[in-house]
């Protein structure tokens, strides 16, 4: 029997699922139809800041697989075609061709929902004007680049999280004066404030203006209908272009309308097989789902390409007759703003508190290589552990070259439920060009003991 | 009661133990005497290749703590004073002042043995001539630098392990023509031969001559009594200077003479508290001990500063009234030869075989960053796992910038006993400047599945 798999959303999760399922089940056993409303399939949204900033010269470099490549694998991928309704009772989806407006129903046996996320765009005056840009899709990146072709000298980035700081870097690299306006006391509020302060100070040292504790109110427009300033609770910030870095939220209107289970974040709830809870033959992955935080035991929404790819693979294996699970995440994230590397995994202090855990933290400074080795770069490492049990809870790193990926040590240790004592004993790679004799992560663990 | 702690050997393990014990027990409760036969205390032997090569301009940069600094902490450190006998029955050591030849007995309540390792120097003609250098101590590094002040143009490095390749790099950086003569089919025999081949090819690409499968026979001397060539089973290799990179063996003659338990490697056997097996008040750490390989369950000799420091800390805590253990190692090592990074952890295939394990391996190529991000550098990753259980057994990486320290992911996973499946699911740091969307280690794990 040939089953029909319908995939809604042609990016990381959906197309990973489709490609993996195709590898395991040939066209005679599985027909695959995928719908993508945009102009591009399977691309790296995480790469958009580096394309906008000019590090990546070509948009097409961000595309992992074109529609043609997917079709050559026997996946019928319909571009510029938006799914506008999920009819779960009759096992069919209604789609609309965005070019000619025509609609059609397509039946399915298995459904994968990979509708992604959308940038938070505050419902405030001026925020929907041209020249105010989200950067979640290639189409949005392209629109921003078109704006930058105009005479832009001053950029205001609204939001100080990952997208905010990465876009601040991109604007600096394009030669603009950059102001980052954000609500929290420090940028990068996925870190504790003491670590976020290091990020702010470094950004200021790079010539950016950072305005903390500022609620955005309005984008003031010039006579051409384009931004001339952003008004926040902290004042008026001149701007020729405005970039939104307010984070994203799961794009789950379709799922909600179809009565599928959503969590508090608005993301779809799934089993660890990535099947939507309680639904036979309905799967979901990527930026539209919630994930289990293995450290706190709670569900969170984390939009990250690496999770989308892993979840897609799990769906594809399960659709292909195999058996795989996505056990959850530990909250790892790495980023950079120019030469400053930023990383975190596990729980920050407020998250530990919210999870009802008693904790202790230690903050240390160390270097990426042996202190005497050329290029040894400073980093600050903060480790948090549960009081009593000594179980590691979180790790945060801010530093220069060689800092960020050290967080993987913490990510694996958290997954294994290691204590700080066990971290101190880890047999990590040591040689002077790569690490001090005690890895900075272990220096933090020692301090914590 | 004031106890008397005697430390034999003033480098990493011994002085870490002394310093840690001192922090926990003041001079009124613990008197500490340490003996060091050399001119230097607490230095980074691992840094010697980079000092010889010129990356580290000053010898003193390698010294973590001078004798004066130790003395200021209340540790009575006697330099150029060699312990020549351990009298365990009468709880005393006999020492000799290497300047004036005088001898003395010193009683102890607690004894720490940190006598280190010595370079293997084959008992072959010419190998003890001036101009043939081991590089295990600062004194030896200094002697090599004096030789290099002469008109040296051709260096032969005997041995293709860590010290061999690091010294080959050092000689290249000093502008010498370099030949590396070694016995195994490929250099870096701590890797599988297919990975070692990548190292050889890279070294050849750097202009080094690599002579595999060659047994050293003799150093031919010129009329000045200095090397003119090394003779191996593969021919005659012209040399103005010869560097020994044949590895090291534990320096345990004193311990052997005192009847202390040694393992097959000649290293001291200890409990996980680092107390010498079955001996009250006798402790040992660093390059003179064997360590438990947590993956194979066997004991091995691994000379590495990071282990010495960790073991010294454990000894010091236990001496200070606390309780700590050194649980063993997983065999992690990172190194580089010029721009080529090399890393391994766990068991290579032959070691898995020797441990009686059925295994599978996978080898993949990936990049250090997202493929489209500037500076994405290629790396080859090999993962080995137990057949059936899927337990990860080993990880080997050869690549460019950003390759080596990824081995830490494997080191932590091995320590936790993770399966390949669990490695695929790990929440590792992802952003385009730091990693492809699947970390190379996970790409290898996927291939293995």
Automatic annotation (TrEMBL), chains A, B:
<keyword id="KW-0560">Oxidoreductase</keyword>
<protein>
    <submittedName>
        <fullName>FAD-dependent oxidoreductase</fullName>
    </submittedName>
</protein>
<feature type="domain" description="Pyridine nucleotide-disulphide oxidoreductase dimerisation">
    <location>
        <begin position="335"/>
        <end position="437"/>
    </location>
</feature>
<keyword id="KW-0676">Redox-active center</keyword>
<dbReference type="Pfam" id="PF02852">
    <property type="entry name" value="Pyr_redox_dim"/>
</dbReference>
<feature type="domain" description="FAD/NAD(P)-binding">
    <location>
        <begin position="4"/>
        <end position="312"/>
    </location>
</feature>
<dbReference type="InterPro" id="IPR004099">
    <property type="entry name" value="Pyr_nucl-diS_OxRdtase_dimer"/>
</dbReference>
<keyword id="KW-0274">FAD</keyword>
<dbReference type="InterPro" id="IPR023753">
    <property type="entry name" value="FAD/NAD-binding_dom"/>
</dbReference>
<dbReference type="InterPro" id="IPR016156">
    <property type="entry name" value="FAD/NAD-linked_Rdtase_dimer_sf"/>
</dbReference>
<dbReference type="InterPro" id="IPR036188">
    <property type="entry name" value="FAD/NAD-bd_sf"/>
</dbReference>
<comment type="similarity">
    <text>Belongs to the class-III pyridine nucleotide-disulfide oxidoreductase family.</text>
</comment>
<keyword id="KW-0285">Flavoprotein</keyword>
<dbReference type="InterPro" id="IPR050260">
    <property type="entry name" value="FAD-bd_OxRdtase"/>
</dbReference>
<dbReference type="Pfam" id="PF07992">
    <property type="entry name" value="Pyr_redox_2"/>
</dbReference>
